[in-house]
Inverse folding.
């Protein structure tokens, strides 16, 4: 079976370091500006949803209150084990064995 435009059989060839350089994610991404919805969203209603008591929350969310103490005071305790998903979110993904 042929896949890819050049028949690369599912392989992608990149310049060494290109993936890590282009797809780098840092802790600073968690402190990016909060997106504000346009005026039409007022018609749908403006509210913040409650974080369920046993919710699993992405680890990047844990960083925002450190930089903005007013952000979501209802978030779980940052030291609570088992509440934070993807603790290695800033590390590059590893290729899967086929």
């Amino acid at each position: 079976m042929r896949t890819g435009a050049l028949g690369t059989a599912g392989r992608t060839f990149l310049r060494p370091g290109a993936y890590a350089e282009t797809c780098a994610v840092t802790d600073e991404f968690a402190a990016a500006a909060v997106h504000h919805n346009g005026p039409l969203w007022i018609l749908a209603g403006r509210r913040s949803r409650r974080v369920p008591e046993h919710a699993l929350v992405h680890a990047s969310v844990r960083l925002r209150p450190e930089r903005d103490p007013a952000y979501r005071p209802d978030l779980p305790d940052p030291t609570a084990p088992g509440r934070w998903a993807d603790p290695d979110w800033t590390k590059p993904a590893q290729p899967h064995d086929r």
